[in-house]
Design brief:
Layout: E1 3-8, E2 26-27, E3 30-31, H1 32-40, E4 46-51, H2 56-62, E5 67-70, H3 75-84, E6 92-97, H4 105-116, E7 121-127, E8 132-133, E9 144-145, E10 151-153, E11 157-160, H5 161-169, H6 179-185, E12 190-194, H7 205-216
Parallel strand pairs: 1-4, 1-6, 4-5, 7-12
Antiparallel strand pairs: 2-3, 6-11, 7-10, 7-11, 8-9
Helix pairs in contact: 3-5, 5-6
Bound molecules: cytidine-5'-monophosphate.
């Protein structure tokens, strides 16, 4: 089956406090999106990157092996736009956040294998490490939630192209923060597989220090 990817990178990254879109921020000498695209090319034959309209040329320079398209106002819209730009022969799609640029290729491979074995969708998850509680009421700490029964969800989230397109064709769902949520709402069965702590999302300034340390352990392939 032909594997393709949509790498979402159209966010502003305001929580990172950078003057550039987050995916263009350099980590160990290269833009975050270049690290993400290189990793994805370990399993995908074609990659579509969704970029902010203000920086399309910068993205095309940063990831010359990818098809760069303009993203939407929300991540969900960016993914939908990315799906429309996939090559016609693609039958499996990884939907990946550029911000999770250091997810190991081995994790991506197990997800793709699950789809090739017949699953509609498969996502990487990791255990929750913090104690979790419900939000406080009038300043009083809420009830503790059993973290053993919870998982933190990462990307890439991998689907048959048919399932991904059907899920996104159902239209925007304001509450959906990932693609698996849309796929399940559309009636697809999504498997969970082990993720990796290197699949963390670069979100806040401190994450850049961790990203830099992880990047230093990787061999640059560009
Ligand atoms: O904001 P957050 O880090 O949750 O975004 C997750 C991913 O979705 C990022 O890689 C970001 O660039 C991307 N995104 C997008 N289009 C948007 C908003 C976010 O492609 N409109």
């Amino acid at each position: 089956m032909t594997v393709a990817a949509v790498v979402t990178a159209a966010g502003s990254g305001s929580r990172l406090g950078a003057s550039l879109p987050k995916a263009l921020v350099r980590v160990h000498g290269r833009p975050l999106v270049a690290w993400a695209v290189d990793a994805v090319l370990g399993v995908a034959d074609a990659v579509v990157v969704t970029a902010p309209s203000s920086h399309l040329d910068d993205f095309r320079a940063a990831v010359p092996r990818a098809i760069v398209v303009e993203g939407g106002a929300e991540r969900q819209q960016s993914v939908a736009l990315g799906l429309t730009a996939l090559p016609a022969e693609a039958s499996i799609v990884l939907i990946h956040d550029a911000a999770r640029a250091f997810q190991p290729v081995a994790v991506m491979r197990t997800l793709v294998d699950a789809i090739e074995a017949g699953a509609d969708g498969a996502v990487p998850v990791v255990p929750v490490v913090d104690t979790l509680v419900a939000a406080a009421t009038e300043g009083v700490l809420g009830a503790t939630v059993d973290r053993d029964g919870l998982r933190a969800v990462q990307t890439p989230q991998v689907f048959t192209v048919a399932a991904a397109r059907a899920a996104h064709a159902m239209g925007a769902q304001a509450s959906a923060t990932d693609d698996a949520q849309l796929a399940r709402a559309a009636g697809f069965r999504v498997l969970e597989l082990p993720g990796d702590e290197r699949g963390f999302k670069v979100t806040r300034p401190l994450d850049l220090a961790l990203a830099s340390a992880v990047a230093a352990t990787l061999k640059e392939s560009a």
